[in-house]
Amino acid sequence: PPGPDDKPTPVRPAGKPKENLSSYFNNWVKNLNNTVDKNEKIKLTKELVNTVADRGGDNNIDAAVSTLQKFGTNIDQNVRTAAIYKLKNKVYMERSLFSKFESILAEHHLNLYNIGYTAIVNENSRSYITLTRNKKNKFNKIYERYI
């Protein structure tokens, strides 16, 4: 899995067209303006960066940077600067979603095999991971009984 939060995780090239996130940006600004808690503002900023990394193209990256510069003046300056840097360099604000998913499984004493999946790491980059479904395991049999 990718390294600690302070190391950039490259964004996966997407096979689908990028979405127009203008309504997301409008809602983000509303949520930011309605939030007084500093930690919640940081959380919203990380969410913005990660959403654009997942679903945005170059136009959305430019729009997100502009939105942060215009409406993010009440966000901690260091967080805002880091977010703009991450956006411009097309990286996530934190570890990849996969690492978070694995840690949630571990908290419940599970792993990918237990829930019927295997992770395949791309040879070119440890950040590109494909999950494939296992055909035989106990979880699948239990699940199929209830369908």
Question: What is the compact description of this entry?
Answer:
With 147 residues, the protein is mainly α.
Distance between the termini: 33 Å
Q: Give the SSE string.
A: HHHHHEEH
Instruction: Report the strand count.
Output: 2
Given as residue ranges, the uncertain stretches (5+ residues, pLDDT < 50) are 1-16
Average residue pLDDT: 75
- Our count of helices gives 6
In the sheet with the most strands, the strands line up as 1-2
**Radius of gyration over alpha carbons?**
18 Å
Overall SS class = mainly alpha
Question: How would you describe what is shown here?
Answer:
By secondary structure, the chain is mainly alpha-helical. The chain contains six helices and two strands. Strands 1-2 form a two-stranded antiparallel ribbon. A hairpin with a 7-residue loop joins strand 1 and strand 2. The longest helix has 18 residues, at 38-55. Residues 1-16 have low confidence and may be disordered.
